[in-house]
Amino acid sequence: MHRKLKIFDYTWNVADQYDMICALKDDCEFYHCLNIRRQWDPSIRPVPDQLKFVTGYKPGVYDLAILHIDQQAINPKHKQVLIYNEFNECIIDIPKIVINH
User: Fold this and answer.
1) How many other β-carbons are positioned within 10 Å of the β-carbon of residue 51?
2) What predicted TM-score, i.e. pTM, was given to this entire model?
3) What's the pLDDT tens digit per position in 8-67?
4) Phi/psi of residue 23, each to 5°?
5) What is the DSSP string of 47-62?
6) Among candidates 44, 48, 12, 42, which has minimal Cα distance to 27?
């Protein structure tokens, strides 16, 4: 039996994330944390079967985290930076990939 890689991330660039999730559908399960930046809008992109929504990070559940940040990082109080910092600090049990949009 093939075990799928469990990936934690949060909604950032839905178009790019949708493409990635669909491309990796046979190998990965994605767990998107609902956050204050934006939500997944199923009227724009359908929710793929391998995408699940969670309300926070739970240690020991996932294999990998994808963290997102963009040019707003120069302002340490901007809400996008706060989301990144929160997850970067609390996720210490698995590898992290940071995508700078």
Assistant:
1) 21
2) 0.87
3) 998 888 888 899 999 988 899 999 998 666 678 888 899 999 999 999 999 999 999 999
4) -70, -30
5) --TTEEEESS--TTS-
6) 48
